[in-house]
Amino acid sequence: MSIELKIDRSHSLAIYQQIVEQLKDRICNGRLPAGTRLPTVRRLAADLGVTRLTVQNAYSALQEAGWVEATVGRGTFVSQAVRPTTFGRALTPALSPDTVISEILQVNHAVGLRSLASASPDPHLFPAEEFWQGLITQQTDVAATGYGSSQGDPRLRVEIARDLQERGIDAAPDEIVVVAGVTQGLSLAAQCLAQAGDRVLVEQPTYLGLLHTIKAQGLQPVAVPLDEHGPILDELERLLIQERPRFFYTIPTYQNPTGRCMALERRQAVLDLATAHGVVVVEDDIYARLAYDDPPPPPLKALDPTGSVVYVSSYSKLLMPGLRLGYLAAPPRLVERLISLRRATDLCSPPLLQRALTIFLREGGLRRHLRRVLPLYRERRNALAQALARHLPGAVQWSTPQGGFCTWLTLPNYHAFADLERAFLAQGWAVTPGEVFLAEAQTHKSLRICFGSQPPETIAAGIQVLAGLIHDRLHGRSQPQPLVNDWAPLV
Questions:
Q1: What is the value of pTM for the model shown?
Q2: Which of 252, 302, 306, 422 could form a disulfide with 168 if both were Cys (CB 3.0 to 4.6 A apart)?
Q3: Residue 379 within a domain
Q4: Beta strands in 43-82 (DSSP E)
């Protein structure tokens, strides 16, 4: 068969990668369905005027990622894995943080789908060889193969305390509890500070994982509206007085999902209000080291002389999500309670992984990794911002983050764009609906767009597709979109 591809020899993207991306586009939008036989290497090379090695490299990259299957003597075919017919079948009409988290995890492993839905790093950038070398050095350490401390390996807590000093936080190793990522840290903090039926304040919008956690624990979220500088202080003070919450959860630095960064003056004012009303602040600082322009402001924990802040962070977003190693830095009065809750939940984090991370941090691996990847993530952020400015109409608003992995897109109203995620998915792209980040409903439509795990060219292509769908709906040209391969309108 003949496939019409375009090669731009002046483009910065390698020719074989241009072939890869264009074939992915055609697989995603259904023009090359599962089972389709691709041209032979010789034929496609002749059609495009490139070497056979270039085409072979493209086919190999697609095969390694699971997009195509090659059989000696038969040829190269679009993989059957691009037809996940059971994908999202159980999704209920009403989206919830739980169902969307489940779907995002599935999207991350779906072949034939481009995801702008997950606020995660690119696994291809993980310094695997250097990190896993730390595991090799533990192979004769019998202690590393048994149970560990529920508070976390003492040597890792020492390294975390040193790492926190770079954020201006003076926390002793005994004030740190190692946890299985920020999600578990938030769960333990919520259990420690509140009981079923209690009210807690959360930013609007906020991290959907936190909304899922507090719902599972029977807590009642109360929305604190945000502006571009952080929580609106008058509303925060009113709610502190009116609701008498057990804690206030905030992501002041490169917030998920908006990407905004709370101004320094606003940070101090938030902390002053919380202290005055005797309310603990749970600070999620997971994205702070992913700064692309200026250094981030100091965390609330660094500004807290009274022990009002429980600080939560993780190495998952800096290195790889599957690491599942994060930590809490808590006031001494709460540490024993948090350790007890951790012990009751899953006893401890894997000692082997903790030892490997300890060595990686101690030997400067994190600093080297960040020096290498921050320019790459900055390039992806810039590609997203440029594509949004180029393609989206003036009626649409969006944030331009100074760090992290998230951008927040706000559309003029809800009803005209109710099927936008479904239509985007029909083109082979996934994005997260804004409503799952809300403690209280809003009248306009929002989307969270994430850029960490995709190269710049893919990000730009996705935004161009999304912009076309938005233009159609603004001008009343949209039609209900059937989903490719019966995928459900999940994220």
A1: 0.86
A2: 302
A3: yes
A4: 68-71, 75-78
Supply the CATH number for residue 45's domain: 1.10.10.10
One domain, residues 135 and 120: no
The number of helices, as runs of H, and strands, as runs of E, in the chain is 15, 16
Residue 488: pLDDT band with limits 50, 70, 90: very low
Tokens of 443: 């009248």
330 close to 172: Cβ distance less than 8 angstroms = no
55-80, pLDDT tens digit by residue? 999 999 899 888 999 887 789 999 98
The H or E element spanning position 190 is helix 181-193
Candidate ranges 15-24, 397-406, 474-483; pick with highest mean pLDDT: 397-406
CB 84 within 8 A of CB 110: yes
- Total number of domains in the chain: 3
Q: Residues 48, 9: contact at Cβ < 8 Å? A: no
Mean pLDDT of 357-381: 95
Supply angle C-alpha 229, 257, 97, rounded to 5: 135
3-state helix, strand, coil in the chain (%, to 5): 45, 15, 40
β-partners of residue 409 are 398, 447
What are the Cα distances from residue 204, in Å, to 120, 248, 274, 309, 439?
21, 12, 17, 20, 7
Decide if 254 contacts 317 (C-beta within 8 A). Answer: no
> 87 or 247: which carries more pLDDT confidence?
247
- Does one domain contain both 61 and 107? no
Q: Are 395 and 474 in the same domain?
A: yes
- Which CATH number does the domain housing residue 439 bear? 3.90.1150.10
The domain in which residue 74 lies consists of 15-82
pLDDT in tens, 268-316: 999 999 999 999 999 999 999 999 999 999 999 999 999 999 999 999 8
